[in-house]
Amino acid sequence: MALDTADEPDDPVLSRAAQELRDEEVPSWVEASTAILAALRATARRTRALDASHPGFVDGDSLRVGDHLVLLSIARALSELPCGVKGIDLDVDGRRCTGVSLDIAVTYGQDMAALAVTLTGRTADAVNTTLGTALAAEDVAVHVVDVLLP
Prior knowledge:
Elements: H1 12-23, H2 29-42, E1 49-52, E2 63-66, H3 67-78, E3 83-93, E4 96-107, H4 112-131, E5 140-148
Parallel strand pairs: 4-5
Antiparallel strand pairs: 1-2, 3-4
Helix pairs in contact: 3-4
């Protein structure tokens, strides 16, 4: 949409603002994306190292996985379920994951029993796949923190 000012007198404030915008040097997308990536790489993220195992585990070998990878794995496993995940907390004893607590928001009238079975099973599977542990569905606690209107 063009601004038609042919029959109006020039507004000095508008003219000056337009001139300053024309004179402003805009960085290229390559420069902007490089700066963004550099800022992201410089950002520190706190994480806990959790003990993990792999199928070919040999005594003396050790494997540690950051807890944020476990949280991401759980979030992905639950992303398509008909509830909103508001929080995920790992229960950790030393460096061993012993359980998970989920805070969820559900729609009013939803079958909570079926949803809870699915949530606990998928969460335990996600942790076991990521860490190679044997977490059971009973080790997952589900807390409903919000109820939404349908």
